[in-house]
Design a protein that fits this description.
Helix content is 38%, strand content 18%. The chain is an alpha/beta fold and 216 residues long. The chain has a seven-stranded mixed beta sheet.
Length: 216
């Protein structure tokens, strides 16, 4: 518990005292509640584990499944809207922000949630989905949707997530933030092109029908 409090002092410049942290930091409350729920889960007391998890969710706004495995010095900053799935594995010294989802992509059994290695940072609103691995010391940009493995020492941004920095070096040919792909806009453009093609064909067919009518 002292380690958890010290971690917040190191990560959050707004933290003023241990007393304030213990009483007011919902991220800390959710982690401590998860440790109780996880202990019950491992003893196969899964209903009680879920009860503890849901009570914690009600008071903190953070949902951590009792089955998730969480390492030391895990820091949830603000935390409202955070969701962590059952088969998630989180290493040591990991930081996540509000609105982050570490979730699955379907109804498959077994390992279906992400693995975050040591020293990973996941920024606000990011979604990391499926049985993928985020390598050591990597960062996930705010609002990103990550569906594939991310190598160690990388930065990934965008929808879908694209590695823009690897081993501290900007990846050539990758997108800057203002140039990130927009799959919805791309789809709309494709539909517009198809509609234009259909309209042109309709015009040609009408002209052909008129010509045949005049000949008759």
């Amino acid at each position: 518990m002292k380690e958890d409090i010290q971690c917040i002092f190191e990560q959050d410049p707004a933290a003023r005292s241990a007393f304030e942290i213990v009483l007011t930091y919902s991220g800390l409350h959710s982690i401590w509640a998860h440790r109780i729920a996880h202990a019950l889960y491992k003893k196969n007391l899964r209903f009680l584990a879920r009860i503890v998890s849901q009570i914690s969710r009600f008071f903190t706004g953070i949902e951590i499944h009792p089955g998730a495995t969480i390492g030391r010095r895990f820091f949830i900053d603000h935390g409202m809207g955070v969701v962590i799935g059952e088969t998630c594995e989180i290493g040591n010294d990991v930081t996540i922000y509000q609105g982050v989802t570490l979730g699955g992509t379907g109804k498959e059994k077994g390992k279906r949630h992400p693995t975050l290695r040591d020293n990973v940072l996941v920024a606000s609103g990011a979604k990391v989905l499926g049985s993928i691995t985020i390598g050591e010391n990597s960062k996930v940009g705010a609002g990103s949707v990550v569906l594939k493995d991310v190598p160690a020492d990388s930065t990934v941004v965008g929808i879908p997530g694209t590695v823009v920095i690897a081993n501290g070096v900007k990846v050539k040919g990758k997108y800057d933030h203002q140039d990130l792909p927009d799959p919805i806009a791309d789809k709309c453009k494709m539909l517009e092109n198809e509609l234009r093609t259909l309209q042109e064909r309709m015009v040609e067919m009408e002209k052909s029908i008129e010509k045949e009518g005049n000949l008759l």
